[in-house]
TrEMBL record:
Annotated source species: Streptomyces polygonati
UniProt-recorded name of the protein: VOC family protein
Top-rank taxon, per record: Bacteria
Comp. bias intervals (Low complexity): 1-12
Membrane-spanning parts: none
Region (Disordered): 1-23
SUPFAM superfamilies: Glyoxalase/Bleomycin resistance protein/Dihydroxybiphenyl dioxygenase (SSF54593)
Record domain Glyoxalase-like: where: 23-133
Length: 139
């Protein structure tokens, strides 16, 4: 007969502490895409390596990173059968939707053909990742 090991009194009672540090986007040129988001958001570069760039917001918090991926395929927006689908998108709040859209377009974003709602605009970054600029609506 075997006996179960004695419980370890020092074992943690819950999950280990975890901290979300950021979101990572694949890109054929991570430096170019990081430059777009740096200018769009006004965030600072904190890591700059040959295949990796990370940005952080001025007040701290989770950042946005970009990694080189030679096999990157631009996602389709909206989703369509048989083509690369979007795996995620970024939601970026703004108090002035028209000015923010104009700013993003001036940096190299493109306005998506399909716009699902009036208080948001779907744009594509230079690598083709969809992102939403949106403004809160009040009822």
């Amino acid at each position: 007969m075997t006996t179960a090991p004695a419980p370890d009194a020092a074992a943690p009672s819950g999950p280990p502490p975890l901290t979300m540090t950021g979101t990572v986007l694949d890109a054929p040129d991570p430096h170019a895409l990081a430059g777009f988001y740096r200018r769009l958001l006004g965030w600072a570069v904190t890591m700059d390596e040959p295949d990796w760039v990370k940005l952080i917001p001025p007040g701290g918090g989770p950042g946005l990173a970009f990694q080189a991926e030679a096999a990157f395929v631009r996602p389709s927006w909206p989703a369509a059968p048989g083509v690369q689908q979007m795996m995620m998108h970024l939601d970026i709040e703004t108090p002035d939707l028209p000015a923010s859209v104009a700013h993003a377009l001036s940096l190299g974003a493109t306005l998506a053909d399909f716009q699902p709602q009036p208080d948001a605009r779907v744009l594509l970054d230079p690598a083709g990742h969809p992102f939403c600029l949106w403004t809160p609506t009040h009822s």
